[in-house]
Amino acid sequence: MEFGLSSDQQMLKESVDKFLADRASLAHARDYAANKIERDDALRGGLAELGVCGLVIDEAHGGVGLSLVDAALVSESLGYAIATAPFVASSVMAPLALMRGGTDALRQSWLPKVAAGEAVIGAAVSELAGGARERAAVQAIGGKLSGRALFAFDAPADAYLVATEAAHLYLVVAGAKGFTEVPLTTIDKTRPVRELVFDGTPAEYLPGSDDGELLEMVLDAGRVMLAADTLGAAQNMLDQAVAYAKEREQFNRKIGSFQAVKHLCAEMAAGLEPCRAMVWYAAFALDALPGEAHLHACHTKAHLTEVGKFVAKTATEVHGGMGFTDLLGLHYWFKRIGLNRQLLGSPERLREEAARAQSLVA
Question: Do the Cβ atoms of 347 and 305 come closer than 8 Å?
């Protein structure tokens, strides 16, 4: 038995890494943020050509039909490159929801478009994942939605996967009657987030979401993908800190030769490396061990959130005053890790969910 990546998985990651190194530089992210570009169609189109957009979609609907471990590897690469293309909701959460709980008509209508990079599906599920804020909630009456959903991500999208108070899932087409999108300001400028307002908005119900289990599975898949994204972003910050320590001189010595700096870099590496296997196993459990998947997804995102925060803070300290400048650009990764911390549940909430799953709390 091998506890590692297959040759095909290594090849997939190398291909995505190479593409992103060429097409998703820091300069690209800066331009995206400065010009407030909402949809990076060029980058998304390139990823679609690689099969990334349809990674978990079955071949019958135009996808590649790979596992969630493969998706986690891609998410890690996207976080490493602070890529400005939608992935977690559009390429993982929404396709899983449609394949496992949608009607044939919904699958035929949306999955081929998502796989080809022709459509984006966002996710508005924060009220069920991270707790409702400002009395935000969505209700469904007679197949129509009313209410508000905050922090919808992978926006702006052609459609949104929406969770109601009853833990049911609906698909809402952007531009539908009674539907309004309001841009929200967050610290992360590489991924737009929206507030969605519904006023008797027609929506397509996903019949497989009757018992709430589909929503939990979709949320857990999103949590593992966000954890992988944080892993990639933190790895990049660590790599930059080590490279800087090897070049920067003080007192006629490279700062990497100082024991204090060595310890900082070693602590970051020691904290981050075990997280990789944790993400892989959580993604594997989603496919192969459904009874364990929820527990591992909660613990993985909660742990990666804390380790990512530590690495982001420490890597910035290794750079000294330069770490806070826009010239270096470390803040793009720092803020990406910060938004990942809150999306789909804070570490405190996720640990509470994990304790509840183990009957440790009422």
Answer: yes
Q: Which of 235, 299, 305 is nearest to 269 (CA)?
A: 235
Q: Which token pair is 124?
A: 């508005």
Count CB-CB contacts under 10 A for residue 119. Answer: 18
For 329, counting Cβ atoms within 10 Å of its Cβ (0-12 exposed, 13-18 middle, 19+ buried), the class is middle
**CATH classification number, 213-357, choose in 2.70.170.10, 3.40.640.10, 3.40.630.30, 1.20.140.10:** 1.20.140.10
- What angle, rounded to 10 degrees, do the helices at 347-357 and 290-318 form? 150
Question: Tens digit of pLDDT for each residue in 100-149?
Answer: 999 999 999 999 999 999 999 999 999 888 666 777 789 999 989 999 99
Three-state DSSP class for 327? coil
For the chain, the structural domain boundaries read 7-115, 121-209, 213-357
pLDDT bracket for residue 2 (50, 70, 90): low
Measured torsion, CA atoms of residues 281, 153, 30, 228, in degrees rounded to the nearest 10: 0
The position carrying tokens 């987030």 is 193
CA dihedral 327, 84, 314, 130 (to 10 degrees): 140
* Residue 132 pLDDT: 67
- pLDDT of 336 > 60? The answer is yes
CATH fold for domain 7-115? Butyryl-Coa Dehydrogenase, subunit A; domain 1 (1.10.540)
Q: Is 339 within 8 Å of 332 (Cβ atoms)?
A: no
254: DSSP letter: E
Residue 287's CB: how many other CB atoms inside 10 A? 15
**pLDDT digits over 200-222, tens only?**
999 999 999 998 899 999 999 99
On the question of pLDDT at 64 being above 80, the answer is: yes
What would the two tokens of residue 29 be? 């992210």
Count of alpha carbons within 13 Å of 58, Cβ hemisphere only?
Answer: 9
- Backbone torsion region of residue 41, taken as left when φ is above 0, otherwise alpha when ψ lies between -120 and 50, otherwise beta: alpha
121-209 CATH pick, 2.170.150.40, 3.30.360.10, 2.40.110.10, 2.40.40.10: 2.40.110.10
Q: What is the mean pLDDT of residues 152-162?
A: 96
